[in-house]
Amino acid sequence: MDGKVKNVAILGTGLIGASWAAFYAEKGFRVKIYDTDRSQCDFGFKNAVEYLNFLLEHSVISADTCEKAVSSIQCAASIDDLANDVELVQESVSERYDIKKDVFGKLEQSASSKCIFASSSSGLLVSEMQKEMKYPERILIAHPFNPPHLIPLVELVPGKKTNPELIGFMADFFEKLGKTPVILKKEIPGHIANRLQAALWREAIQLVIDGVASLEDVDKALYAGPGLRWALLGQHMIFHLGGGTDGGIGYFVNHIGVSFEKLWKDMAKWEHLPAETKERLTDGIKEQMNGRKIKDIAAWRDEKLIEILKVIRS
Ligand SMILES: NC(=O)c1ccc[n+]([C@@H]2O[C@H](COP(=O)([O-])OP(=O)(O)OC[C@H]3O[C@@H](n4cnc5c(N)ncnc54)[C@H](O)[C@@H]3O)[C@@H](O)[C@H]2O)c1
User: Fold this and answer.
1) Is the pTM of this model over 0.70?
2) Spatial separation of the C-alpha atoms in residues 65 and 27, rounded to whole Å
């Protein structure tokens, strides 16, 4: 951990790995990528280039930066080749302990003992991944939000054996790259943001199943209301403002908290998705899609995200 990360390896070039590749390349790192085979790696490369071109088209990066970024990404020939001569590995393989443990074992055979391993895992515990590692102090979770080349959040999670200095080092590293790192003081499945999403999603499903509103209106009630504020402030600050200029969060807890208690009593508490979930969500989303394609909505989302980020950063 000498502060000189120049070469980054991305293992797994699916949805998240390809986006990480675009992110690191755009920031000026030399990026090596690898997946299970060459064709999968080529697919990831093609997507990373597409993301970079998208950033160019929307004036986020210059033509020169785009050209340099594209030429800085290379497909490695093997995991050995990938891990050789890099200071940071951003692991982005499938979300399974057996696969993650297997690839970290292989990476350790070729990576230098100082190379940092950052796992993109959305919900696994890093202590479990550390169990059979030779140098477990080098690994942490650096969980992005999709797509990492646009969304600033990165959750940093230590395992039991992670070097405590590594967390601070990576927070500083990501902050300098324009990301918004948050640090978990201890690991917990799903980290912070996905636990919050899980709590919200359960109630959103229940509202659809109970026929309280259409799926489209449940979604609208999020993006046209609280979602707009969430782009700027978190829940606690929003409620601090909700408590009025004199009262703040203390007033909110004392006087409005009780009405939340009534809601919690009435809300969904199940731990397994109700049997009708898939059918109800599929039907509801079909209506909301109205013939549009996922790819087109994702492109529209990314265009708008760029505009929102410009406003927030201005
Ligand atoms: N999808 C999301 O929204 C999201 C968001 C943040 C983090 N993540 C996390 O990122 C990681 C990857 O998720 P994803 O959505 O990109 O999945 P994905 O299925 O799109 O990509 C996973 C890639 O890993 C590759 N892979 C599997 N086993 C491998 C191996 N042994 N060696 C090399 N490559 C291997 C697959 O071929 C695939 O290309 C997961 O840990 C996930 O939890 C996902």
Assistant:
1) yes
2) 9
Q: What is the pLDDT of residue 171?
A: 98
Instruction: Using the predicted structure, report yes or no on whether residue 11 has a pLDDT greater than 60.
Output: yes
Q: Which residues pair with 155 in a beta bridge?
A: 143, 182
Strand order in the sheet with 153-158: 73-75, 30-34, 7-11, 88-91, 116-119, 139-144, 153-158, 180-183
In this structure, the number of other CB atoms found within 10 A of the CB of residue 96 comes to 11
- 2 and 117 Cβ atoms separated by less than 8 Å: no
Summarize pLDDT for 245-293 with one digit per residue, the tens.
Answer: 889 999 999 999 999 999 999 999 999 999 999 999 999 999 999 999 9
CA distance 109 to 134: 9
Best residue among 34, 39, 47, 93 to mutate for probing ligand 1, ranked by most atoms within 8 Å of CB = 93
Secondary structure (3-state) at 201: helix
What's the pLDDT score for residue 314?
85
Q: Supply the residue whose CA is at minimum distance from atom 18 of ligand 1.
A: 14
Ligand 1 centre distance from Cα of residue 90 (Å): 11
What is the C-alpha separation between 101 and 119, in angstroms, rounded? Answer: 11
CA 191, distance to chain mean position in Å, is 11
Cβ of 146 closer than 6 Å to ligand 1, yes or no, is yes
